[in-house]
Structures are given as C-alpha cells and as structure tokens.
Amino acid sequence: MAPADTTARVRLDTAVARVPGEASAPRSPPATAVGPLAWLRGNLFSSWLSTAVTLLLAYLIVRWTIGFVEWAFVNAIWEVPHNQTQACREIKGVGACWAVVTEKHRFILFGTYPFEEHWRPALVVLLFVGLYVVSALRRFWRKELVMIWAGVLTLIGILMWGGNTAPGLLRQPYEQVLALVLLAGAGFAYRHGRIGVALPSALIVYALLAWAGPVLDMPYVSQERWGGLPITLILATFGLAFAFPLAILVALGRRSELPAIRMLCVLYVELIRGVPLISLLFMASVMFPLFLPEGMNIDKLLRAQIAIILFAGAYLAEVVRGGLQALPRGQYEAADALGLTYWQKTGLIVLPQALRLVIPPLVNTFIGFFKDTSLVLIIGIFDLLTAGKTAIIEPAWQGFGVEVYIFVGLIYFMFCYAMSKYSQNLEAELNRHRRR
Amino acid sequence: MLGTIRALGAAVLALAGAATALPAAHAQQPAQQSPAANTVEVIRSRGTLVCGVNTGLAGFGAPDAQGRFQGFDVDYCRALAAALLGDAERVRYVPLTAQQRFTALQSGEVDVLYRNTTWSFSRDTSLGFDFPAINFYDGQGFMVKVSTGVQSASELQGATVCVQPGTTTEQNLADWARANNMQIRPVVIERMEEAVGAYIAGRCDVYTTDVSGLASTRAAQGPRSEEHRILPEVISKEPLGPVVRQGDPRFRDIVAWTHFALVAAEELGITRENVERAAQSDPRPEVQRLLGRTGDLGQMVGLPNDWALRAIKAVGNYGEVFERNLGPLGIQRGPNRLWTQGGLQYAPPFR
C-alpha cells in the first residue's frame, strides 16, 4: 500500500507546484541525488566518520580477498607425487595445499568403502540428490511420490549393501531384457497414474533388482565400511523422513484431550530435549547393546539413526506444535461445525495451515540436523566430517587441515544453502495469499 | 529407571524393526554371534575375524587414501586371522572410539581389541577382560624446542605444558609434578592437532603425550623436526596390547602366542621373505617347532601346525611389523627392542 500512496502524493505536489505555461516534461533530478553515486553518498560517505569506516573496511576486504586468492589459487599446489608433501610443507602459510584434497577426496567422500566399489556410493549420492530435486518440484507432489521414495531408498540399500547370495536370476540375457521391459512398463503405468498396474510391476522389478547382485557383480559390503557423504545423507534423510511424521503425531498428541496421550508426548519431548544428542548417541552405541539379549546385535549405524530420529522428532514436534497453536481457534471450530472427523479436520484444515506457518523454523531445524549428523564421529562412524578429519591423520598429510575443512565445509554449505534457498521460495509461494 | 530404559529399548527395537524391514530383506546381514565361550569356533563358523581398531591413529590403525586400514595394530589383526583362518584378508575392522571399545568387546561386537589399549590393574580385573600380551611398550614423555636449551625434564620448573584433557596423560603430568615438587602450568587443549599447533606456535614450552605420539609429531615436522627434542625422561608406563574377553583361555592363548611367534621369529632371524625357506631347510629345532615342521604345537591350541608360518608370512616378524608401520613415523624401537638387544620384547620358548 505504501508505494501507491507516495506516488499519489508526488503527483499531487507536482500539480500544485506547476507554473502555468511552463513545459510539463518532468526534469530528471541532478546526478548526485539519484543513481549509484547518490546511494554511495547517502549510505557510505555521509559523514567523515562513515567515510573513514568505509575506506577502512574496503581496504580490509580487498586485502583479505587478495590474500585469500593468492593463498587458495595463485600459490596453491594442486597435486604432488604420491604422499611426497615436501613441496606443500615449504609453501605452508603462503599457499594452499589442495593436493591433500586431490589425493584424499575419494576417502573423504566415501570413507572406508572398498575402493574398487566407489561407483556404488557415488551413485547413491546422485540418487539422493535426484530424490531431493524430484521431491522439491511441486509437479511431483502426488501420492506416487511415496512410491518413488520407497523405490529409491530400496535401491540405495541394495547399492550400499550389495550381496551375492541370491540365486542366479537375471543371469540369462532374456531375463535381463524382461527386467528392462518390466521397468519401462512400470514407468509407463506410473506416468499414466495407473497405480494398479504400476505397483505390481514395480514390485516385480524391485524383486529382480534385489536378485541382481551377482549380475551387477556387487560384493557384499558390511555397514562398518560405509562412510563419507553417503552416511551423512543417509542419516539426515532417513532421520528427517522418519522424524517428521513422528513429530506431527507427537505435536498433535501434545494437544490431545486424552490425558494419557498428552502425558506420554510431553514426557517424550521433555526427556529427549533434556539430554544432549551426544549422550543419546552414546546410549545408543554403548549402553543399548548391553540391554539386548545375548547374540543379538543391532547394526551400529541403525542405532545411531534411531537416536537421531528420536532426537529430531522431539525438536520438530515443538516446532509443529508452535504452528498448531498459531492457528486461530475459529479454524478448529469451523471445521467442527462442518462435521469433519478429527482426522479430516487435522488433515484438511489444521495441518496445511499450521505447517505453512512454521516453514522457517522447520527448515532451521532441518539444516541444524543435517549438520548434527556429524556428531556420529564420537561413536566411530565415518561420516563426511569424520572422514575428512581421518584423512589428515596420515603423517605425510598432517597439518593440512584447513584445506580439508574448506572442502568439507563447501559440501555442507551446498546442501544447507540449497535447503535454505528452496525453503524461501516455498514459503513465498505457499504464503502468497497472505502477502499484501 | 531400569524399567524405563527397558521399555525405551523395546520401543526403539520396534522402530528398528520397522525401519530395517525393507533393506534387511535384501541385505544379507552376517549372523552376529553372541559372546560365546568358544570364540575360536565362532570365528571359524563366521569365516572372518572381527577386529576392533582405532578410528584413526597414525601408525597403529588408520584408513589410508583408499580406505583400507593400515598400521601396527591392524597388522596384528591380519596375523591373527592368518593363524586362525589361514587368510590375512579375512578380517572385518570395526573402528572404535576410546569410549566404545570396551562395550564393543563385552557385547561381542568384536572378537578382539587391537586398539592401543593400556593394560592396567582395574581394566584387567574389574572389566572382565584379559590382556594376553604386550606388543608395544609406551610411556609418557616431553618434547621441547631445542632453542630452549632444556636437556632434562628436571629443568621444567615453571614451564607451560600443552596437554590433552581427560586422558591419563593429564593425570600423569599432575602426579609427576607433585612428586617432583615442580610448578607446571598445564594448557589443556582438546584436540591433538590443536595441542600440537599451540606448542609449535609457542603458546607452551612443552608438549606432552606418549613417546610414540611425540616421535610421530616430531617426524611430521619434516625438515624442521631437528628443532624439537624429546626429553629422555619417561614418566609413566603405558603397556599396549590386545584385549580379549575373560573366560576363553583357548582364544587368549592363541592371541598371546601369535604375538610371541612374531617376536620369536625376529629373534630367530625369520622374515616374511625367508620363512618358507626356513621351514624347509633351517635345521634349528626351535625354528622347526615354531614353523610346524616338527612337533604339534599348533594342535595343542587347536590350530593347524603351520599357524605361525602363516602369521609370519602374512605380516613378517615383530621387527618388520614395527619398521613398516612405526618406522616412517620416526618412532625408535627403544624399549620395544628384543630382550637380546636390551629391550623388553621377550617370547617364552616354543616347545
């Protein structure tokens, strides 16, 4: 509303100030009053103090930038012969030794995963990114998205674990062709929304893929050997994918009228929020095995994953509850007046509005948890950050931490920035009706 | 409280079941074994040795650029796998942090710990573990800059010392200062690299940790390593070695004697290269017994008679294992020389 007012007033003033008979063409204001020059004068050089600060800061920024460019690019060493780091040590402090990243990037990205099999975690990372992109597009916000998720996550599991005990299905060429045909069929059926066709054919393809280990020649890789970026993505994706529905249920439960459910939810949230994530991870990895019956051993990664889900669930539940409380009471009453059941009311009226309200804190928590997954280092899982730290343990490469941390930091930044950027768009789009 | 934890555990389990249902159908999880009394049988039926190693300690156990674990402790895992299963590659390495290691062993997640663990009274007696052998004698020492002119730890009165918190290192330093009536100002820094950085940058006069750690830090300085001196005093005993669960004497014996076989091999001049030849042609009776040409030493512990030959062939003798992994770090043999050369490494006779 404000800009419209101003325009109106300006026009009014002009009319009053106009001298009859004079040319009515508006004159452009002096160069010092508009344009970049005026902006500079107004904002950066308005007084001697501001001028001094501007000059000082400009000097510092330029110096720092030149220093950084010299360190990171001009004087940097990009490659050294195998583990011969003398050249790097000589230019220490003057230039960066990106050779550490060149030499160790596969370890940083994929940890202790068998070297010859690195294409598998690489493919997993691509699958994850693809999954994120597809899920981000509104065009794909349909029921079938759940199927895509299930399919892709299964594929990720198959790729990471591999395994070759399955019988020799798919060994014969005609079986492979059949599988391809089925896959195409499933895709076609899916496109045309015939879930009745898509589901069974997808299941068949899925079963075939599961048996495809020997054909694709994927040896079994136990979980201890997984590492690097896939671990970070697995922990974050599964963590948030499971924690979010859990959080919604807990948030609804906390506002329930049944005292038992309410108490249970309050207890869960307060218990989990009351302890640091580190202690939960410790409990999952150190104490939990002692409570299990003898002979039973749950995968270390899975235990950490569950701890992360429980922890993220408690935090997200409070965020969702904030959204539920921000909703005017009238919305609930109107839904009741329409005769909707509890779940209809929640699913159609309450949650869509409440979740839309809390997109910023939700994404805030998501980003926080994406980075918190790095805490699994205390239980000996090689996630991206731990792998980066471990890469510089070898004596030849000790002391080149800055380069590795910059590399790892960039990867984290890319994911977090993408999340934050996307959430801004989403927020703008979903809250369009509120904008004035 | 326990009830709550159990309930929580059950809930977590239920969730876990739901979460694994999908991938577990495809992943053929190796059957995890219970901490049984007969570890050897468990390892045999599984076909792999599960070895708890350090998540990353240069020279002892750390993944290389290709993600394969390498190091002194890792070579011991390989030797044990070769002795038990005949193949040094049949090892699954489980990287463990200092806090996790004992639970992992107690719960049967790993068969044996080769994770530079110090043998101490309380660990041996109250945790339900056995320490079959000592494969590395370590101890806490000091490093100073040569430019300070300090020759001995007795000159450290009033010095600032960079030390990592929460370890026995910090405690030993305090004990030593009190015992010697010295005023020491500790600068406590959590991460090793940062503690070293602070020392190099001159924030402290002295850096203290185990001598092996000091040596590798010094060696990592490259051409500038000459500027640092490791003082001769060693103020604590850190005997490092493998750890096994108590109550399985057979496995304990095998772990202990695998170490002794490597030491004996060095003493007898048997190396990775010549071990096959020695087994064929070395006339010395102890060599013949050790390598399984005569006698039935292997059978006494339920192994084939060439168990030691296989272990030595996989990793070499003690000296070779040491030089290959710790030599490049600049760690001297020191107390880890053979007893015949004035060190502490001593193997009981093979007969």
From TrEMBL, chain A:
Stretches assigned to coiled coil: none
Membrane topology: Multi-pass membrane protein
Short name of any one Pfam family annotated for the protein: BPD_transp_1
Regions that span the bilayer: 48-66, 119-137, 144-162, 174-190, 197-216, 228-252, 264-292, 304-324, 375-393, 399-418
One Gene Ontology CC term in the entry: ATP-binding cassette (ABC) transporter complex
Single GO MF descriptor: transmembrane transporter activity
Domain ABC transmembrane type-1 stretches: 229-423
Alphabetical keyword list: Cell membrane, Membrane, Transmembrane, Transmembrane helix, Transport
InterPro entries: AA_ABC_transptr_permease_3TM, ArtM/GltK/GlnP/TcyL/YhdX-like, MetI-like, MetI-like_sf
Protein name: ABC transporter permease
Species annotation: Caldovatus sediminis
Automatic annotation (TrEMBL), chain B:
SMART domains given in the database record: PBPb
InterPro entries: Bact_solute-bind_prot3 (IPR051455), Solute-binding_3/MltF_N (IPR001638)
A single GO BP: amino acid transport
Domain named Solute-binding protein family 3/N-terminal: residues: 48-278
Signal peptide range: 1-27
Keyword Signal: yes
Swiss-Prot/TrEMBL keywords: Signal, Transport
The keyword Transcription regulation is assigned to this record: no
Pfam families recorded: SBP_bac_3 (PF00497)
Family: Belongs to the bacterial solute-binding protein 3 family.
Descriptive protein name: Amino acid ABC transporter substrate-binding protein
